[in-house]
Amino acid sequence: MKSINNHNETKSATITRSATDHASALDLKTVKTTSDAPKRTRPRIFGIKEAPTYYPTEEEFKEPIKYIQQITPEAEKFGIVKIVPPKSYKPTFCLNTEEFRFRTRIQKLNSMEGETRANVNYLEQLYKFHRLHGHPVNKVPQLDKRPIDLFKLKKEVAQRGGYQVVTQQKKWAEIGRILGYTRKQCTSMSNALKSAYNKVILPYEVWLAQHKQDSNHSSSSAGMRRQPSDKEEQEAESPSNGGQACEICNSGENEEEILLCDGCDRGYHMYCLSPPLNTVPKSDWYCFKCLTAAGGDYGFEDGEEYTLNSFQKVCEKFKSEWFGPKGQYPTSEEDCEDEFWRLVENPHETCEVEYGADLHSTQHGSGFAPLERKPDGRYVNEPWNLNMIPILPQSLFTHIKTDISGMMVPWLYIGMCFSAFCWHNEDHYTYSINYMHWGETKTWYGVPGCDTAKFEETMKAAVPELFEQQPDLLFQLVTMLSPERLIKENVDVYAVDQRPGQFVVTFPKAYHSGFNHGFNFCEAVNFAPMEWVDFGLECVKRYKQYRRQPCFSHDELLVTAMREDQSIETSTWLKGALLDMQQREMATRSKLLKKYPKIHQVLEDVELLEDQQQCVFCNAYTYLSCITCECTSKVSCLDHLSDLCTCDPSKKTLNLRFSEDQLNEMIQTTSSRACVPSAWSDKVRDTLSTQPAPSIKTLKQFVMEAEKLSVPIEEARWIRDYVTQVTQWLEEANKYIIRKHQPRRRGSSHSTKLYTGEKYNSITHLLDQVAKMSFDAPEIGMLQETFRNLMDAKETATRVLKGDQSTVTLKDYKDAFDFGTSLGADFPEMQQLELTIKQREWNERAPLALENPAIEYDELSQWIQQAKECHIPMNDPVYVALMEKEKRGTEWIQQAEPLLKQVSATATKTKTMQDIQDVLHAAHQNGVPRVPHLYNAVRDLATRTTETVKDVRQLLERARTNSLLSERPSSTEVQRVLKSIRTLPIHVEGMDVLQAEMAKVDTWLVQVKKLFRVSTRNQQKNTLEPMLDDILENVETITTADQSQHHSEGGEGDEDGKPNDVYCLCRTPESGLMIECDLCHEWYHGPCVKVSRREAKAQTSYVCPICDGSQAIPHASKERARLEDILQLLEDASSSLLFAPKVYILLADIANRIQAFRSKVQAFCRSKTQLGVEDIDQIKQHLRELEGLEVVLQDETEFLRRKVQALAPVSHRSSMSSATTSAPPSIVGTSASASPVLQRLPSLTSANWTNGANGTSNVTSMEADDDTSPSRPTDGVYCICRQPASNSQMIGCDTCHDWFHIECVNLTPAMVTTIDRYVCPNCIASKRSSRPIIKLTVKPPSQPSPKQQKRKLTAITSANNTSPVSFYENGRSNKQPKRRSASDDLIVLPPPQPSSQQASYHAHLHHNSNNNYHHHHHHPSSVSPPPPSSTSHPSNQQQSQSQQQAAWLASSIPSSTSTTMAEQ
Questions:
Q1: pLDDT on residue 500
Q2: DSSP assignment, residue 656?
Q3: Structural domains of the chain sorted by starting position, each given as residue range(s) with its CATH number in brackets
Q4: EC number(s) of the enzyme (predicted)?
Q5: Buried/exposed 1214-1229: b ≥16 CB within 10 Å, e otherwise
Q6: Which pTM was predicted?
C-alpha cells in the first residue's frame, strides 16, 4: 500500500524551503501554456460520454454572454461544455507570482467517497457506545481470519428486515456470501455472523432506536417552542445560579445533578436522561448528540502556506514518486483518471493531496488584468476577462449592490495531481465559467440539470447515514460518488478535459465534479443572464427548505432590475418574475393575516443591515416583509412568526416594504413597458395597410422608433431587413441613374473596351425587382428615365450603322457614339461605332504620316499597331508601305545594337572602326526611319573611339621621346586610357603595349610595398601613397629643422639664442605630454618615446634613447627602409619602366632630401680629426635627427652612436667591491684624514701621471673596444670626461667604484670633506640610486617667491622641476622648455669650515627624505657668489646639514648640465 508519508516528507521539505525561497517567482516557461491534446487511446472509464466542445468565431467571441445564450438550447442538455477561444485570444497572466501566497486544503481521497466515510463514521459511533457502557470492543470479530465488515453486516441485516427476521428466515448464510465468505472456508459462518451482530451491533441498534424516539419527541417539542428573546438568551447564557443549564429541561436547578458531556461539555440532569442515571459514570460519558454525530462535522483540513514556485516542486515530486515506481511516469491522461477513481473507491489505501481552492481574488489577485474604466464609466477590459463577465450588461448581477466573493468576484484554484472538487451545483443555480491560465489537464464530470432529482436520490440511497447526519450534505462540497454508480441509476454523466487557454461553462442546476492531473492554475466566476430568473427562484425555495444561507435576496434583485433597467427587453422577461413575486408575497401575507388578523402593520421602505434582513429560523431574506418584536433585534419571515421569540403575537409587528398597491403598480409599469413592442407592431401594420407603397422615409422612421423603444430584435427584424433590402436597391440604382445636371462626356480619344450590355441588363433587372417591391422613392422614376435614354441611344446607333456609308459622315458616327458614351451605354452597337470611327480616322491620317521623311521608328510602330486594332485590311497600300518602312528600320537597329553592347574583358573584339562608320552611313539612306536615341549613341561611340586611338598614340610617343622617367606620362594617364579602351567594341592598336607596361609598373610597385612593409593582402586601395606622403613629411620636417639649426648657429636664432621651438626625435614643436632627459636635457613627446603619463609619474628619472643606446626607438613602420634600397628602386624604375608611377615622384623627393641631409651629417663627422666632449651636444642632435627619420642612414647612425657611447657612456653594471676596483692615486699633499672618501685615495706620484700637450690628456680613441665598460678605469682614463688622473682631487663612486675629477662632477674640496657616501651621475642616470634628484611637476617653472628665497639652500636648474622626472603638458604653461648647453659653467660657493660634529650620511639621508627642495629657474649669468666665510659656527647643526645636502645634490648633477648652488 502506498503510504502518504512520502508526500508528507515532500511537503515538510518544501515548507522548510519556502522560508528561504520565499522571494522566488514562478517561471512560466516551466508550465504548460498550450492546449495541445494527445489523442485518447481507449474509451473513458465507466463508459462516460464526452460533453461537446464549441469553437466560436472571432465575431461570435466578441460577446461572451450572448454567445453562451446562443448555444444554451443545445449545451444545457449536457450540464457542462468546453469553449475553445480563437487562436488570437491570448490574455496576459497578470498575477505577481513572486508575492503570491496561498493556503491549501488537505484531501484524503478515500474519505471523500460517501460510502467509505459512512463506514468509518458508524464504526466510531459503535466503539464509543460500548466504551460508554463499560464493555469496550478491544478486538473486531473475525471470520476466516479476516475482520468482519460490521457496517456492511448492519446494512445487509437492515435491508432484510432486522435481526429477528434474518434469524427466523435463516438468512445469515446469504448475508455471509454477500460479505465474501463461503461455507467451504468457514463451516460456522452463520453462527459467527449472528454472534458478532448479537454482541456488537444489536445492543447499539436497540439503544439507538430507543433514543431516536426520545430525540424525535424532544425535537418536536422544541419545534413547538418559541425562540427566546434577547433578554432570555442573556439569562440562559448566565443562569441565576451561575452554573450550567440542562439541555433537556433548560433549567439550572440541582446543579449537583448535572452531568457534563466529555465531548461537547453540554450539561444534563442525570434524572432527565433516558434511562436516568443514579451515579456519575466512572469512565468518559458522551451525550446522545456526540455519540451519534461522529463524522457529522466532516470537512477538509487546512494545509500549509505555499508560493507557486514551492507548490510546483511539491506537485512534481508527488506525481513522479507516485507513478514512477509503476513505470507510468510521465503518465497519460487515461491512466491518471483510472488511478484517481481507484484511490477514491478503495477504503484500504490512503492517498493525501492538497488543493488550493476557493482563493479570493480580492485578497490574492486575479490572473486577468484588473478592471479599468473610461471617463464615461464604461469598462475597457476584454469581455472574456472573468472580472468583467459578472458585470456585463447582459448579466443580472449588475443589479446586486455588493460584491459577492466567488460569484461576482472570481475565485482562484491551484491544483495538484488527484486534487478534486466534489459533486455540487452552483449557488443560486447560477451559470459558472472557469478558465485555465496554465498547467496540466483538469477533468470535469457533469450531470445535466434535468437529471438533478435522480442524482440526489441516488446520492441519498448510497449514503443515507451521511444524509441523516447532514441533511444539507449536497451543499457541503465534500462528497464524491463514482460515476459508475450514477450511470447504473440512469443518471446521465458527461465528461470534458480542460486544458490551458480553454473555458468550461456549467449550466443552472447541473451537478459537476472533477479532479486535476497535475499542477495547474484556474479561475472561476458566476453570472446570471435573464434566462436564469426561474432557476434562481427555485433555488431560493430550496435554500429555505434546508435553512441554508442564501448569497443575496432574489426579490431585491428583481425590484432593483425593474427600477434601474427600463428597457423593453428587460421588461419582457421581468414582468412574469414580478408577477410571481407579487402573488407569492400576497399569498403569504393573506395566510398570516388570516391567522393573526389583529397584528400590527407598518409600511416603511428602509435599508436594513444584512443580519436584520434574514429570517432567524430559515435564513431566508425578508426583503418584502418581515416580523419584528420589541424584545429582539432579529427578524423572521412571515412563515416563522412563532420562531422569532416567546412573546405573544399581539406584541409583534408586520413590517411591509411595499403595499399591495405599490406591488401592483410595479407590475403594471413593467407590463406596460413590455407591451410597447405590440403597440409598435400594430402601428406598422396599420400604416402598411393604408399605404401600400410607403416612402423610404416612413420605413426608416419605423426602424428608428423600434430602436428608441427597445423593441425586441425578433419583432423588429423583418422591417430592418426590408429597409436594408430597399437601401441596397437604391444604392445599386444610383450607380446607373443619369441626372439632368450631369454633363455629357465627349471624348476625343476612345479606348476600346468590352461592350457586354451589362449595364443595360442590370437596369432592366432593377426595374423588374422594384415592380415587386412596395415602396416609393424618386430614384425609381430617375432610373426609368435613364432606361428610356439608353433605348434612344441604341436606336440612334443602329440607324447610323445601317445607313449608306457614302452619305454618313465621320461626324455622324462621333455624335452617335458620344451620345451613348454620355449615358454609359455598353450595348454591342457602341463597340461597332467605336471601331468604325477609328478606321475612318486612320484612313485619313496614316497616309500623311507615311509621306513625312522625318518620321521616327516609334511613331511608325504606333500607326501599324492602330491598324491592327481597327482591323485595317492587310492588303491596304498604306498599311503595306508602313510595314516595309518598319522592316528597314528594324534591320538598321539590328546592325547598331551589337556595337553598343557591353563587351567583357575576355571576349574577342571583332568590330572595327569601319563597321561603326558604315552603321552611321546606313542611317542616312532613304527609307530608314529615324531612331534618335540609338543613332546618337552610335555617333558618340565613333567619337570616343577616335579620341581613344589618338590618346594611345600620344602616350606612346611622349614616353619614347623623353629620356627622364619623371617627364614621361604617368601611370594614372595610362590607366585612364585603358579604362576607356575596355568600353569600346573594337580592338585599339597599342593597347597591348600599354597593358604590358602597366604590368611592369605593378611589379615595381610590389617591390616598393615589400620594401616599406605594406601588406599586399590589404584590401584598401592606395595604401602605399599615404604612407610615402607621411614619410616625405617626416623627412621634410627633420631636414628643415636641421637647416634652421645651422642658420641659428650662424647668428640667425631668436632673441634667446634658440633656433626654433622644435624638440624630440620628430623635430616638431611641443605638443601634449613632454618629458625631459636627465642627461641631455632634451624634451621629448611622450608618444614618440612610448612613455605614458602614468609611467612618467612613476619613474624617478628618465634617460632618453639617444643617451642610452640600449633603448628601442619606436617608429611609424615596424622596420625602416634603407636609403640604398630606395635608390636601387629608383634606378630600376628608370631603366625598366616606360611610364612613371605616382609613387616614383614621392620616392625621388624622399631620396633627394635624404641624400642632402646625409651630406651635411658626413660633413660634420669629418669636420675634425677626432670629435670630442665639446661636440657631444651636436653629436646627440644629429643622432636624434637620424633616429627620427623614417629612412635609415645606417653608417652615419652607427658612427654617431659609438661616439655617444664613448664620450658620454651610461653605466649599466652592477656594483663592485672597492677591493677589486682600480683607483687612481691621490693628489700630493692631500690629507688622508680630511674625508672618509679621500682616505681611500692613494698618493699620486709622477710616475702615475699621464700628461697631455697642455697638461690634459687626449680623449680616448673612438675606435676603442666597445666591450670595455666606460665607467671602469681602462688604460688609465677615468671620469665622465674619459681623461687620465690629473693634478686634481678625485672621488670614488660607492656604487660602480669608478673615479671622477671633482670639478667634472661639480664638487669642491670643501664639499668632499663633508661627504660620507658618494653616488656618481652615471649610477643615478641608470636608476641604480634610490636617492631622488628632482621631484615631479606638471607645470613649467616659475620665479621663486620671497618666502621661498628665505630657504637656507636652493638648487636652481634650467629645467625648473621638482619631480623625479621633468615633464609638462602643452597648454598648461606659457613657458617653453629650455635645453641646457654643455658649455655652461658650474659656480660653487666655498663651504664653511668643518665642525667637530659631522653629520653622518645616514642622518643626511633621513633629513633629505623629510625636507622638500625647491628648484627654481635661473640663468647662470644672474648668479654671483657671496664672499666666503672665514669662520665656522660649530653649534649651527642645521647649516652643516644644509651644506652636506648641497654638496651631495651638486655632485649628483652631470657636468653637461648647468647648475648653480647658492646659499641664501
A1: 96
A2: E
A3: 45-113+301-449+496-528 (2.60.120.650), 228-282 (3.30.40.10), 554-674 (no CATH), 678-736+755-836 (no CATH), 1210-1463 (no CATH)
A4: 1.14.11.67
A5: eeeeeeebebbebbee
A6: 0.51
